[in-house]
Amino acid sequence: MKIYWFKAQAPRRVVALAKHLGIEAKFVWLDVAKGGLQAPDYKTLNPNMKAPTLVDGELVLWESSAIMAHLCIKAGSEMWPASKPAEQVELLRWLSWNEGHWSPVVGQFYFEYVIKPKFKMGPPNLDKLEAKRPELEKFAGVLNTHLAGRHHIAFDRLTIADFSLASMACHWREADMRLEQFSNIVAWLDSLDKLPAWAEPWPADA
Ligand SMILES: N[C@@H](CCC(=O)N[C@@H](CS)C(=O)NCC(=O)O)C(=O)O
């Protein structure tokens, strides 16, 4: 099995999960600065020219949620509840909410404060972020309320939804997301940081 990655939030979900589950894979680092995402061989695997991508025998899979589900099925992990349809529905709710609402707004802050400095793209656009702040607070409120009395996104156990929803929000301090007022979110993110595979997800290949 091969997992293509570079140091960014969507690949982090997958490499952290593979490490957490103890999955044997060849981790193929993509040299983004040298056009690794646009290389013809990679583009054949992932026409989106994004990471992560998984190759497992004949299977070529992109989209981190699908890859994470595949890894869980292979490892027999309930982090994706392969044999529990009702639980799948609940996880799909949160994965969809993440793609549709949480990631798009949290991602603005992540991009301005984490990605731009990394690729020397200039200072953060503060006006843009201030305009996004009400939306961030609205969705943070939804998540914070949901997390009241919970340690995880679903079923009081770690699932792929935790890794998906946390992959950009975990940068909240450096990215000026001002989540202090959402104490359940902060407690959840801080507890995820105690997982070795989440705290130190990156393969050694780079
Ligand atoms: N929805 C996709 C997102 C993939 C994605 O956007 N990956 C980013 C890194 S976080 C990427 O490869 N960006 C490179 C680019 O857009 O040039 C997933 O969950 O896998």
Automatic annotation (TrEMBL):
Q: Where is the GST N-terminal domain?
A: 1-79
Q: Which residues form a coiled coil?
A: none
Q: Taxonomically, which superkingdom?
A: Bacteria
Q: What CDD domains does the database record attribute to this sequence? A: GST_N_GTT1_like
PROSITE patterns reported for this sequence? GST_CTER, GST_NTER
Indicate the segments forming the GST C-terminal domain, all copies: 84-206
Q: Report the family membership.
A: Belongs to the GST superfamily.
Query: What name is this protein filed under?
Result: Glutathione S-transferase family protein
This chain's source organism reads: Allohahella marinimesophila
